[in-house]
Every structure is written in C-alpha cells, then in structure tokens.
Write a structure and sequence with these properties.
The protein has about 325 residues and is mainly beta. The protein is built from 2 helices and 14 strands.
C-alpha cells in the first residue's frame, strides 16, 4: 500500500514543481492596467558628470492603434545634475524631465513612441530652456525581445521607423529672452542589430544586481549601434530588473536598477508560451488516481479484517464466503 501511494505522491510533488516559471522557455508577459515598474537610472556623461534619475513606467490601458489591439504605457522621469564645466559659464545646473508614451502589441513589440522632453540649463544669469518632441512610428519586425525566448536563442533585431521631431528652445539672459524653434523634420530609420540569450542567472541584493528583491532572470546580450547592452529580464516581474549599457570601447555608459514594481499577471500561466506545459489536467488525473488507489487499499484492508473476525469453521462445513 505505502509503496504505490508514496510513489504517486512524489510524482504529484514533482509535477507541482514543474508548473513554476521555466526559464528554458520565456514567453511574453501579459500586462494589466495599473502595473508599474520603478527604476533608478544612472547615466555616466563624462567630465565628472553623473545623472541619476528615478523613472516610473505605468501600464495605462488597452487601446486600438491603427486597427490593432495594443497596450499603452507611460514612462516619466526627472533628472537633476550639476555640470562643473558646462557652457557658457560654469558650473551649469541641468534639470530634465522626460515623458514617453509607448504602445506595445501582444508580444511586447513597440508599435509607437511619443517622446516629450524638457531641459533647463542655468548658469548664473544665463538660462537655456529646451523642449523636444519626437514621434516614432515603428513598422514590424521590431523584435528586441523576440518572445518566446528559448535557451540558446539568437535573433536579428530590425528597426524600421518613421521619426518626426519638433524642437524649440528659449535662451534667457538678464537682458532678453530669445525663442527659437526648428522646422519639424521627418526621417525614416532602418537599423539592423543582433540579440541573443546569454545565460540564466539570479539577480538580487547578494550580488548588488537590483534593489527590489531576488529574481531568476534570463540575461540577454544586445548590440545596438556601437553600444552593447546586457538586459536582465525576470518573468516574475514581467520586465527588466537590471540593464547595463557599454560603449564601443567597453566603458560603462548607463545602469538601470529596479527598485519597486507591481505586476499582476506573474508568473506567466502554464499552457502558454514560456510557462511550460499545461499540467493542470495531469495533476487532476493523478489526484483522482491516488484517491482511487487509497479507496481500493481501504476496501482490501476491511475485507482482511472481516476474515480474521469470522468464527472457526467445524469439520465438514463449507468455507465461508469472502
């Protein structure tokens, strides 16, 4: 009795473990309005200048873009830094605010970006105010994250985008204010780069990898222009928990750390790409099998007990029915 039942219980336990996040196959996350991620972004700009920004990305709502279903997100960040050698007379204090509205398809590929940024540079009596607006309309494929991501995968990233820019700025001195705007420009951009699965890892406090917890991650290596990116993606977070950007000569340009998040659909449910096989039916069948086995064992034990309790039979009496 105990041998078969124990074997089935061990099987159920192993199957239950198998229903967790399988980093051998990582599927696209399913975002829900209200999901958000908070990052600390550090930009090393040279000249002993370091920009640090707290940046928040929030999922707003599900919308229709160009006739297709999309999820709309917004990223907001503000940066304050002092540039000791900034023109025209240093030191210069820089305040920059950024707001990006991004539309994503079901595979989390970028469909469109509206990028609005404002920058104020002030030095003594001299202030420069700059306002920049960019509208990126992407044409697939745009597969920076080519979900589902398989262990050992490598793929080509093709960006075909139409970019419209509007730039205006004001120069303010103690004597006058001068407003300048540049004509709107449209540019078609095609860029081909590469990405690949690098390794599976653990990213947490112990290795100073991020500031929000400890996560199993898949590490992706990407080449974008002359820069190299290392992205640490966690299915439990549904987003990056860390990013490192290096220049062509290997100098660190930027780091991004996750500091907080809310992701309502974690982990990716089983039975969908990236969540492993759907074992729910298997678990039900195994549970029913255990119940049936235990029931049969109980009936057999009851019958054996009944036989032991029957009175002894006399000579010539027929054997008792079981």
């Amino acid at each position: 009795m105990r041998g078969p039942a124990l074997a089935l219980l061990l099987l159920v336990a192993s199957l239950a473990q198998a229903t967790g996040v399988d980093l051998a196959v990582v599927g696209a996350p399913r975002y829900t309005p209200g999901d958000f991620w908070v990052y600390r972004v550090t930009l090393l700009a040279g000249n002993n200048t370091t920009f640090t920004q707290n940046q928040t990305t929030t999922v707003l709502d599900a919308v229709t873009l160009d006739g297709a279903a999309a999820m709309r997100t917004v990223t907001v960040g503000a940066t304050d830094a002092d540039n000791p050698g900034g023109p025209p007379v240093g030191p210069t204090h820089i305040h920059q605010e950024e707001r990006k509205t991004i539309w994503l398809d079901a595979q989390q590929r970028i469909l469109r970006i509206e990028d609005d940024s404002t920058q104020v540079q002030s030095a003594r009596a001299f202030t420069v105010f700059t306002n920049t607006s960019q509208d990126w309309a992407f044409h697939q494929p745009m597969d920076t994250f080519a979900f589902p991501i398989l262990r050992g995968d490598a793929w080509v990233v093709i960006t075909n985008a139409t970019v419209t820019r509007n730039v205006s700025f004001s120069t303010i001195t103690s004597n006058e204010t001068r407003n300048t705007s540049q004509p709107a420009s449209t540019q078609n951009i095609t860029q081909v780069s590469g990405a690949q699965w690098l390794r599976n890892d653990v990213c947490g406090h112990a290795n100073s990898c991020n500031l929000a917890g400890e996560f199993d991650v898949v590490v992706l290596l990407e080449h974008s222009g002359n820069n190299t990116l290392f992205d640490f993606y966690s299915p439990l977070v549904g987003n990056l928990v860390r990013r490192e950007i290096y220049s062509e000569n290997g100098s660190l340009l930027q780091t991004v750390f996750l500091t907080g998040y809310q992701f309502q659909q974690a982990p990716t449910p089983t039975g969908t790409p990236g969540g492993g096989p759907d074992l729910s039916l298997t678990l039900v069948v195994v549970a029913v099998g255990i119940g049936a086995l235990l029931g049969l064992v109980g009936v057999a034990a009851w019958k054996r007990k009944q036989r032991r309790e029957l009175p002894p039979q006399g000579p010539g009496e027929p054997p008792a029915s079981p």
